[in-house]
Amino acid sequence: MEESSSATTGDQRDKSTEEEVIIREVDTDQPSTCPENELDDRELDGSESKPPLNTSDILKAVEVVERDSRAIADSFSSLFASLRLALSEVTSGSVDHMRCFGDTAGRLQESALDAATEGNRYINSCLRYSEEECRCPRHSR
């Protein structure tokens, strides 16, 4: 009986170690979307022309953030599955402990996903702010 449970445990651990979360590195050599080399954006009538937003770069950045958030959520799921397995071994499968742990793990996962969502909102706000700063007259010389 112990051999079959330890074999199952070994198989489950092998599966969890085989899963890798790949987080895409951000290319820091990408050209800035800020119009640094433009002389003056003022039209003849004195109004300023605004450069078009580089939405493709913004969308790419958002996609990276979303992909990383999903990877983090998957990582948490894997972690909780491992913890659930370890707890079941220690408690000899106590149903009460498993329910308690399941509830706690679920709440922690929800909190982690909420934090990732808030992080996405923060990054999006930073991107919008950065775009606005690039359009500011004092930055375009």
TrEMBL record:
InterPro entries: BORCS6_C (IPR046465). This is Uncharacterized protein isoform X3. Residues 60-128 form the BLOC-1-related complex subunit 6 C-terminal helix domain. It comes from Gossypium hirsutum (Upland cotton). Residues 11-27 have a biased composition (Basic and acidic residues). Transmembrane segments: none annotated. It comes from the Eukaryota. The gene is LOC107929197. Residues 1-55 are annotated as: Disordered. Residues 1-10 have a biased composition (Polar residues). Signal peptide: none annotated. Pfam families: BORCS6.
